[in-house]
């Protein structure tokens, strides 16, 4: 296995694999013409922050737990 041609072929193959692996990240993310759709309110994660906070509060009050949100929880819903 000390054949210089096989070592050279292995190096070329490894180099080609590295180039292919690095070039796969070139198209990650939205294109400029897609950004207007992503900026719409309905596409945001927390588009309706007050509604989300109320639903989250009701859920954790009924479950008698708090999911690491930084507030104390109880089962009565008065917190």
Describe what you observe in this structure.
The protein is mainly α and 79 residues long. The protein has a domain at 44-79. The chain contains three helices and no strands. The protein has helices at residues 4-23, 35-38, 49-63. It is elongated, with a radius of gyration of 27 Å.
* Sheet of most strands: none
Helix content: 40-55%
Termini Cα gap? 73 Å
**Radius of gyration from the alpha-carbon trace, in angstroms:** 27 Å
Order of helices and strands: HHH
- From the spread of the alpha carbons, the general shape counts as elongated
The total strand number stands at: 0
Secondary structure tally, helices: 3
Beta-strand proportion? under 5%
Structural class: mainly alpha
Uncertain stretches: none
Q: What would you call the quaternary organization?
A: single chain
**Arithmetic mean pLDDT:** 75
List keywords for this structure.
79 residues; mainly alpha; 3 helices; elongated
In short:
49% of the residues lie in helices and 0% in strands.
Helix-strand layout with pairing:
Blueprint: H1 4-23, H2 35-38, H3 49-63
């Amino acid at each position: 296995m000390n054949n210089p041609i096989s070592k050279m072929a292995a190096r070329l193959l490894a180099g080609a694999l590295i180039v292919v692996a690095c070039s796969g990240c070139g198209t990650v993310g939205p294109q400029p013409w897609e950004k207007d759709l992503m900026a719409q309110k309905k596409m945001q994660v927390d588009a309706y922050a007050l509604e989300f906070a109320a639903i989250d509060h009701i859920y954790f009050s009924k479950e008698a737990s708090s999911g690491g949100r930084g507030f104390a929880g109880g089962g009565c819903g008065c917190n």
